[in-house]
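Protein modeling request. Please complete all fields; requests missing the sequence field cannot be processed.
Requester role: graduate student
Desired output: 3D structure, token encoding
Chains: 1
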Amino acid sequence: MTESSPEIVLYDLACTKNVCFSPAVLRTRLMLNYKHVAYETIFLEFPDIEQTLKELGVAPHDTRSDSEPRYTVPAIHHVPSSTYLMDSHAIAEFLESTYPTPPLTLVSSFINQVSCKARSALGPAFRSSVTPREIRILPPRSQVYFRQKREALLGHRLEDLLDLDREERTWNDLADEIRAAGEFMLTNKANGPFVLGAQPSYTDFFIAGSLHSARMVDEGIFERCTKFPGYKEIYEACRPYMDKMD
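Delivered output (246 residues):
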């Protein structure tokens, strides 16, 4: 990263480890690091996100349910243009347009398929393993907020999710799908370590960000994922873009 004045202020989710752990923010952070954009981070606790972004004039999500947050991170302030944006996909499009070099493929038929397969395979596994453990790395005020919101959505206590026997069955039931998604990631391995081969794509950052988030919550979840083909290869290929995480 350069030592020049930051062009971007990145609003991130605070945790007790004082590093980025949100998978959505990690996608943005890896893209900023890949493009060598100078930026600084402001970490926000869960209960402060809405008030902070509202005061900045960030437009809220157009939600259809009271259970869906109207303000989320990542959000950015692009200092040169005084632009404020929220949502990782909108931010990715803005960054690619504003900083086109080096280029990053955001969408294609193939990488969309990879993303869908990975999300379908890992989503249920992460809900059984990451969601009930995430609260452990949140600051006290965020713990209260997270518990209140998640338990209202789930209809039961977070601790009820942490059933080790059920968790094990979930991973076992998903093993073939997780393996197939990982093998699909390696389609272009003859051309390089990334999903498309020689150059990273936004899907690589989605996969690596999800894995790194799991790692920050619990190393065992990360190790479980990376035993399958594809996941560790993508993660390691993206490690050069994890140099700035705070």
